[in-house]
Structure prediction request, 229 residues.
Amino acid sequence: MAEIRVQEAPFQPGAELEAFQASLSNAGAVVTFSGIVRDDSGQMTEMLIEHYPGMTEAQLTRIAEEAENRWSLAGALVIHRHGILRVGEQIMMVATASRHRQNAFEAAEFLMDYLKSRAPFWKKERSANGDSWVAAKDDDETALSRW
Amino acid sequence: MIDVLYFAWVRERIGLPKERVDTQAVTVAELVTELSGREDRYAAAFSDLTALRVAVDQQLSDFDAPLEGVREVAFFPPMTGG
Prediction:
């Protein structure tokens, strides 16, 4: 069973990884991904993340369950924050566990590709010049085709 | 009665996050036409459907999806998680 958490509060990625590993039995490989608030313009004061409560959790669960089945995972963890975040703060993390590394790597990439354009989150950047919604990239959509 | 939800710039353009709509629309597309006819702010939000995504009862869906038995429809721009 994948663990899915959508929360406003910050989290400690190290502690989450330790707890995730402790929950596993007979996994030989764990892969993690961390998403961090980045400031491309050099002007950003904060990032606002909106989501669709209920559907977000359901959609992340569907995506994680598909990854678990497809790569026979020993476990999967997805944590994603919403609300107001500052540059350098951790937005989200994904962890996957399997017997051998290849499945864990691939499943983590699959989870991230789907999470980016199929989980109902929307990012808005705030700066001194005003607010702007982050546009989805064509690349994100193309990335799904390889799965 | 259907709960209609709006997110991100769709919510901002229409000016509210959620409303109950009494509609006879048979498909999502018909609901969009009905809403667009109400006021300019709706027409503006729905002017380019290629820029919008729709979820029906919290499942990603298409604009030709039927509304029979549906409780909740959400409109939003392409998602930008991660």
User: Anything to note?
Assistant: The two ends of chain B are 34 Å apart (CA to CA). The first helix of chain B runs from residue 8 to 14. The longest strand of chain B covers residues 2-6. Chain B touches chain A through 16 residues (CB under 8 Å).
